[in-house]
Structure formats: structure tokens, C-alpha cells
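Priority: low. Protein: Lipoxygenase domain-containing protein. Input follows.
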Amino acid sequence: MAEEDPNAPHGLRLTINDYPFANDGLLIWDSLKQWVSAYVTHYYPNSSVVESDKELQEWWEEIRTVGHSDKKDEPWWPTLRTQQDHIDIITTIIWVASGHHAAVNFGQYAYAGYFPNKPTIARTKMPSEDPSDQEWKLFVENPEASLLQCFPSQMQATKVMAILDVLLHHSPDDEYIGEEMEPSWGKDPVIKAAFEKLNGRLKEIEGIIDERNTNSNLKNINGAGIMPYELLKPYSGLGVTGKGVP
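Result:
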């Protein structure tokens, strides 16, 4: 869905320009990468320090060989030898646990909370699967009744809706990306300043995403019957909001 291009925004040329996940996600990614770059280069001023850090190397080996033992021999694993290797690896891990997870998780209720969109069970076979003459007759005469027999029961649907509500609910103690500084970061002026820059960028991204959602030229997020894309807005209030990046 994208190709590396140094002349394109964020160094990537998108196959689909009006692609809200990519456009908003790249803003978060770049902000994370700047923060990680400042952190890594402060504590690992050159590549030899990265290579000689025994604990760091054992951590990366454990991720590959224990955390992903089924994939440990794959040729695509990056090496951890340079500052840039370190930055890319850490940025990817943070992104997967924050922006990527938020984008695939917190929008589910808007779709699956209306259970006919995504029924969790079929209680009967599809009408075309070996129907008896009587079953086919009932289907032709009253397809809605056949559909309701196939759908989950009210109790089954309600259970799934309740589970989704719990899964996608922002609680009062949720911590959002770039919001709270770790006490140890505040003790180091360089790291403190880098984190404050991250915090400021994420607040700016909130406004950029709001502005994009009002842009009538972006047909995938603006228009009649089109939902604004807010899954990568960094912050959220309480409840099922469809936004917020923990």
C-alpha cells in the first residue's frame, strides 16, 4: 500500500492518497520515531555501544528466539548493531502496542456493536445448504424469519455486545501516548525536553486530525453518511469513544 520515496511526506508514497489510517498513522509514527531517536542517541551515542551492550543484545535475542520461537529462523529479522537498528526496532514495538492496536481495536463497537453486521454464531445452516423442501418453502415465503432463526439469539447477541463494551471502554486510569512522563525521564534534562516535544506534537496531531475530518476533498472521512476517522486521535474521554491511543 506504500513505497519508499524520499520526496514524499514521511518518506512514503501511498498507493491510496485518501487513506486515513495511513495518513494519521504516519503522523503518530514520525512523532514516536523522533522521541525514540532522541532517547536512543542520548544513551547510545554510537553503534559500538549498541553492539557491546550484553543485556540489550540478550533482550533482542529473547524477543526473536523465545517470544517468537516459531519465527526465530526467518530471514527477515532485523539485526541490532547500529543506532538506527535500535531506533527502528524500538519504534516498531511501541507503534504496534499503541497506534496500530488502537486503530484495529477501538473502532469495533461502531460496527460489531450492531450485531447483524457481525453475528458471532449462525444457529442454522444457510438456506442453500442441503435444504429440505419444507425449509426451502419457508425461506421463500418468509426470508426474514429464516434470517432471525439463523442470527444469534437475543441473549447471545447481548452477551457479545456487553463484552465488546468492556473491551473497548476507556477507563479513568487509562494512560495515553505521550501524556504522562516517567519520573526518571524528568530527572534528565535532555530526555525531559524530548518527551515534552513528543507531548506537544501529539496535541498538534489532535488538531490536524480534526481538520482533516472537516475537509470535503477527503471523501473517505467527510461527506453524507461518512464517519469521521478518529481512531488515531491520541486522547479520549471515558467510555466507548472510538478514539484514543493508549
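The mean pLDDT is 94. Residues 20-43 form the longest helix (24 residues).
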